[in-house]
Structures are given as C-alpha cells and as structure tokens.
Amino acid sequence: MKLLSVIKRSLLLVTILTAPQSYAIAESQVLATAGGMNVTADDLKSAMASSPFATQFPSMDREDQALLRGSLLQRLVASKLLYQEAKRLEIDKTGAFQQDVETFRLGLLYRYFMDKLREGISVPKDVTASIKQQYPNDTDGAAAARAAYLSDRYRAMRYLTIKNLRKKYKVKVYESRIQLHRMSGDTVLLEGDGILITYKHAVGNQVNPPQNKTWLMERLYKRAELLVIAKAADDEGVDLSDRLNSYSDERLPAMMIEQKQREWISGKDTLKKYYDAHPEFSRTLERWHIGQIVLPAKEEAVAVRKRIEAGESLFLLAGELSVDPYGKRMRGDMGWVKEGSGHPDIEKAVSGLEDNQLSEIVQTPAGFHLVMILERSPSLKRTFASMRDKVAQSLISEKSAEYFNELSERYKVVWNLIGEKQVQTEKH
Amino acid sequence: MNRQKWVTLLGAVLIAATSSSFAGPGSATGSGAESKEKQAPSLPDYSYKGLDGEMHSLTEWNGKVVLLNFWASWCAPCLNEIKEFVHYQEQYGKQGLQIIGLGLDEARKLKNVARTLGINYPVLVAEPNSNRKLLAKWGNSSGLIPYTVFFDKSGKLSGAHKGVIDDQTFEQKILPLLEDPE
Known about the structure:
The complex is a heterodimer.
Chain A: H1 2-13, H2 21-24, E1 30-34, E2 37-40, H3 41-49, H4 62-88, H5 95-119, H6 125-134, H7 139-168, E3 172-173, E4 188-192, E5 195-198, H8 199-203, H9 213-235, H10 241-264, H11 270-277, H12 279-282, E6 287-295, H13 298-309, H14 314-321, H15 325-329, E7 333-338, H16 344-351, E8 362-364, E9 367-377, H17 384-410, E10 413-415, H18 420-427
Antiparallel strand pairs in A: 1-2, 1-10, 3-4, 4-5, 6-7, 6-9, 8-9
Helix pairs in contact in A: 1-4, 3-4, 4-10, 5-9, 5-10, 11-17
Chain B: H1 3-17, E1 47-50, E2 55-57, E3 65-71, H2 76-92, E4 97-103, H3 107-117, E5 123-125, H4 131-137, E6 147-151, E7 157-162, H5 167-179
C-alpha cells in the first residue's frame, strides 16, 4: 500500500493547506504531480468549492479541514492517474466516449443560444410603468409581474425562433414513416441542412421504448429542437474548446473507473464467491451483555471467584473491588459488546460459557478478570441477495486500492508537500 | 411583508433603540444590556460577548458607519456575503466603515469560520437559543438570515436589509453614509 502510506503522510502534512494559511499559498502552487500532470492549490480550491462539504468546510476544526483537503487531494491525484490510463487505452477514441462528448456539446450549444435569447428580452418602458401603477408600494408584486412578463415573452420568442430555424434549415418530418414495428434503427424520420434524425436517434438510450406514436413524435420534436438550435449556435462559431476539454478531463477518468468496475464484478459468480469468502457479510455478529470484575492479583481473583460461586454478587463485588475504573463505576455491568471486539483471551474464555456462568480467571495487562455473559443477542443470517450491493462496494473498494497502487507505479506520483517543520512554523 | 409594514417596523426599531423599552431581559451577554444613561448621539448600548472572550458594547464603535450583520456558520449565503464584507472592511475601513458580525451559532464554529474566511472585523456571539427573539428585536420577525442593520456615523439607525447585501445595495445604501460627514 505504497500510495496509501504516501497519502496518510500527505494528510498529516497538508495541515498547511488549511485556512487561513491556504489563502497565502499561491493558487498555482503544485501540490502533487501524477505522471507529469499537476494538481495545483487552485485545483484543490475548485474541488472544495464544488464538493458537498463546501458550506460546512469553513466551520470545521483545523484538523478536520486538513483531513478533508487531504482526501480531496487524493481524489484529484487518482483522477489524473485514471485520465492517463484512459488515454493509454484509447478510451477517448471509443464510440461511447465520443457520443458522450457530442451530447455534452449539443447541450452547451443549446444553452448558449437560449441564454442569449433570454438576455435579449427586456421589459419595455411602458410595461414597466404599467406594472408600477398596478403594484404601487409592492416591490415583490412588481417583481413577480416583471418575471411573468419576461417568461411569456421568452416562450413566444422561443417558439418563433424554432419555427424560423426549421424554415432556415429546411427541416422535413417524415411522419408517414412512423409505423411502429416497421421501422429499423436507420429509418430517417427527420432531416434538414446538416440535420438528420433516424428512429435510433429519436429513441436514444431507451432500452425498451414504448410502442406509442405520440411518445415517439415528442421525442422526435425534442431532438429536432435540440439539433436546430445547436446548429444555429454552431453556425455563429461559438468556441467551446475549453469547456469540452474540461469535460473530457472529468469524463475520461470516470469512464476508466466504470470500465474497471465492470471488469471486477463481471464474472458470473464473482460477487457470490466474495460473499462466501467474507463471513461478515453472511451474518451479523453475536452480541453479549457482559458482567466483569478485574482484580490486581491472581490470589485475590481466586478468592473472589470462590465468593461469587458461594452466592455473592459479582456486581456488588465489582463496585467494591474492581481495579478497572469503568467497571468499578458501572458495578461490573460492561454493557453490550460484539463478538470479536474484546481481548482475545477473554473472548476465548467466554466462548463456551452458558449464560450467567462465571469464567475461569483470565490474565491480561489490565489484571485478572472474572467474566460472565448475562444475556446474548444471537447473530442473524443475511442472504446474498440482501447484501449484494454492500458486497459489490467492498469488492470495488478493495480492487480500487490495488488498482491505484498499480497506476501509481506506472505513472510516478510526486507529492510536493511542505515539511512538518515548516508546517509548525506556519502554524505559529 | 410589504414595504409599508417594513418601514413601520424599522421605525419601531429606531424608536426602541433610543428608548428604555428596547432593553433586553437583562442578560449581560447575547440579548443585550442597555445603559440607563441616554447619551445622544450614540449607537445603542447593547453588549455581546466577542470571539475574543471579552464583552463588547456597540458604543465602542461610536462615530463609525456600523453594519451589524447577523449570520450563522450553516448559512451558505451568509458565508458568501462575509467574503465580500472582508473586502468592504479592507477597502472602506479607513473611511469609517465598521462591520460587526453577530453570530447566531456555536462560538467554536463561528471561530472556525472567522479563521477560514479571514474575517477582519469583530465577531460577537448571540446568547444560545435567543436567535429568534434577538432577530425580532432587531426588526426581523421572519428570522431569516443573513440580515444586516446599519447605522450612520451619529449612531442613528439608517436601515436594514434582509438577504445578501450585493454590490448595488452596498453602493446605494452604505456608501452614501460614508460620504456623509455626520
């Protein structure tokens, strides 16, 4: 776990990255390099701003902030590793990736055009005057009336724009070809200058599309609206290269890890085998309600054992004699504990006991123990079906750690961390 | 709340701020303790504990244009507004602007926010569990934050603003107070 150890070290050292010192660090400062790709303080700041913890972060204690930033830094480095691996495996040249990018590009073009359309709409002076007259001394009412006016105008403009664009690009709809059960994926349902929609395009990723003409027509018109507006924006020569590059930077690592996850759980019995090999998934642990007294010397333990066997209460004696401060305070009632969570020698001593049967004397560094199980909550069986998701999560988490180790060997990771001495200096 | 009601409420706050009827329940921290002596012109003599552990009366900032900003660490818009307030304080502090944060939250969390965002003005802490009443006393019966009340250099309550104070609001409502010699 070379990477993990480095990350642990980084978590300690990135204390320097906690605010307000973080603001003193140049945003371009390189915090880590993965195979030649840099992760800068600015990258970390952006990741933090878009994380679910963005609001809580400022109110966190310094140590918690450092841990969170360390964890985000680790994710950013992992993302760089996955990106390079995806490029090496040419995932960026696959149809799936290119289709993803194209869908994103069309969305951007559509939004650009519609935003511009919306920005071009304003409330004329006479309408403003009329609203003021209608809502004197009511700013909220006037604002709502303005918003309603703008919304109506936008709807009308949108309708007109789409109508004009359909005309401009000579869009034709082949409604007569829409015959359910007779169309193939390549049946062209709509076309125009630089625009083509086949049945396959209209249906999209829908696995079992409803065999319903109305549904298909809606899909077709939605797709047509997207395409004509995207084409209009494209014709204006909008430069989307930065945003498309950013999208690729984020999407490639995601596709890489999705591909690996599919590989890890692809085998027919992979998850079942993992479930069988990890008994913690197939049953809950037995829980025991424990009574205990701890004595400082073996002779005393022998004497106390005889007193309990003769009928005295373990609890009264524990409240009086136990050298375990918690046990003494609780008069020997140690509460519920899960099997496997106690000292191994004590676990061994109680494993064969009946309820309320006193154990033999068990020696641990804390003293000489006498223990009994007062009551128990039995373990419950958990079926594979009910645990499938958790099993998959556990397997993926295990495989991911191995995979990141492998990647960090292939693409050298260098942590540009500030030494502890410097951290101390900065802190004071 | 309509505008007319709001103006009326502000008027009530203004009157209350200069009369003994505005006195809190007597606690020396949080809800405020008013001096019996009335000295005009002055900011209302309300005292709150600061993040520095000391008690502070608003009168410490007499002669300044004071923005008393009510906020909490869980309020995302408040945190965004604070980032701007830090710039305002830096830019207009010399002209007499004094922003004062009044945190409606645990002191530990408020301290962390002050450290993380580099707050460069005093932060006072409201008495726990008194937030709603405190805000109502300051003219904000809805209890929504961020909420800011502002005073001119003579200590007169000049206005209040619910929600984030954006650049336009700052320019329209606060900057003129800084330009006004008295």
